[in-house]
Specification:
Elements lengths: L2 H7 L3 E4 H9 L3 E4 L5 H9 L3 H9 L3 E2 L3 H8 L5 E7 L2 E6 L3
Parallel strand pairs: 2-5
Antiparallel strand pairs: 1-4, 2-3, 4-5
Amino acid sequence: MSDLRKELSETLDEAEWEWLIPHVQRDAVIVVSLDLDLLDVGEAIATDNTSSVQQWIENQLITKPSNTQMGEWNSDRTKRFNTLILQPYVLVQEIAA
């Protein structure tokens, strides 16, 4: 495991939707598809791996939260997410109920 990946894995955490709202308000939340590994995405962003990141964006595997998603999450403020803080972003991945 690379030093960066190890460092990122130590910052993986869980958060409730309500805790993420301030980060959404500053447009810093990136939703990561369940088809991707959160650490892989964090590592790619941290190392400026633009080809991978661009491909994920084009395939809508990493996105900004949609109004529909935010509406669903607002109705269940205890909805939980795996999170990875990668300044200035907060990468989130839904945890299946």
